[in-house]
Write a structure and sequence with these properties.
- It is a single chain.
- By secondary structure, this protein is an alpha/beta fold.
- It folds into two domains: about 130 residues, 3-Layer(aba) Sandwich (Rossmann fold); about 140 residues, Rossmann fold (3-Layer(aba) Sandwich).
- It is about 40% helix and about 15% strand.
- The strands form two sheets. The chain has a five-stranded parallel sheet.
- It starts with 12 loop residues before the first helix and ends with a helix.
- Bound molecules: phosphoric acid mono(formamide)ester and norvaline.
- The site of phosphoric acid mono(formamide)ester has 8 residues, from α2.
């Protein structure tokens, strides 16, 4: 059976830590391997991407493999060829699918009909590779992740869901401040709590930010929600990570953002460009983490 990564909760605690340790080792040692020698990863991206696409393309090359990049525009995907047919054909050419799409159910269909691993490169519900690399960004600063208080300020979106999944595996306290109507999926919160996650929900960004080790945010309108931008700007006013919110956190607090950022909305220019921001370290870590994820998928770790 191929190994798939559709969400962080798919991982055992042991595998999650194995991937994290390996990513750090790959980064610290500047390691390139032959894990993907003679192997091809097909990247299917139904949404835009800068970091995820390029870090996966480079990661595959660092592992000795090759990539093919596909979008619906120039493939039969955009002409309604069923995913189950696409999955069965691509499985006969390549060794791995890295997929950015809308509903999680599309990834589940690909898994059902693929004989090769499927990796979620962002869906409406989850962004596991980003949040695993965010674990690396936290871990390389504090190895005792269980001692940390992480605040999520803003939308209970795909990133929030993957942080909730991660809280169950890596043991940090997670406090999410979301406006009414924009909470994370209660089923994801409940599952994580069953696995031991310490997850708290509040409507108050100040309560979340107080004594936090990390303040974390993301765009108010995710890809596919552009039509809700105006309404979301109204609802999320007061949920900006700015100097005032940062002043409530621990003095050494770091600010995380997966990027792309909308300055002046979910984060102020001063905070994003200021000394607390680790956004560009996070972006770098995508490369190291993608390599570890690919090694895990191919069973070499
Ligand atoms: N953070 C992230 O996934 O960025 P991209 O949309 O540029 O891939
Ligand atoms: N929540 C954002 C993340 C982008 C990397 C989105 O889905 O657009």
């Amino acid at each position: 059976m191929p190994r798939h990564l559709l969400r962080i909760a798919d991982l055992s605690r042991e595998d999650a830590w194995k991937i994290l340790h390996r990513a750090k080792e790959l980064k610290d040692g500047g390691i390139r391997t032959k894990t993907m020698d003679g192997r091809t990863a097909i990247l299917i991206f139904e949404k835009s991407s800068t970091r995820t696409r390029v870090s996966f393309e480079v990661a595959v090359r660092h592992l000795g493999g090759q990539t093919i990049f596909m979008t619906p525009v120039e493939s039969q995907l955009g002409r309604s060829e069923p995913l189950k047919d696409t999955a069965r054909c691509l499985s006969r050419y390549a060794d791995c699918l890295v997929v950015r799409t809308y509903g999680q159910e599309k990834l589940e269909t690909l898994v059902r009909f693929s004989s090769i691993p499927v990796v979620n490169a962002l869906s409406d519900e989850h962004h596991p590779c980003q949040v695993l690399s965010d674990m690396l960004s936290m871990y390389e600063r504090t190895s005792d992740l269980g001692s940390l208080r992480v605040a999520w300020i803003g939308d209970g979106n795909n990133m929030a869901h993957s942080f909730i999944d991660a809280a169950a595996l890596f043991g940090f306290d997670l406090v999410l401040a979301c406006p009414a109507g924009y909470d994370p999926d209660p089923a994801i919160v409940a599952q994580a709590r069953e696995r031991g996650a310490r997850v708290t929900l509040t409507r108050n960004p100040e309560d979340a930010a107080r004594d936090a080790d990390y303040l974390n945010t993301d765009v108010w309108a995710s890809m596919g929600q552009e039509g809700e931008q105006r309404e979301r700007e109204r609802v999320f006013a007061g949920f900006q990570v700015d100097d005032r919110l940062l002043s409530l956190a621990k003095p050494a607090c770091k600010v995380m953002h997966c990027l792309p950022a909308h300055r002046g909305e979910e984060i102020s220019e001063a905070v994003l460009e200021g000394p607390a921001s680790i956004a560009f370290d996070q972006a770098e870590n995508r490369l190291h983490m993608q390599k570890a994820v690919l090694e895990w998928v191919f069973g070499t770790i």
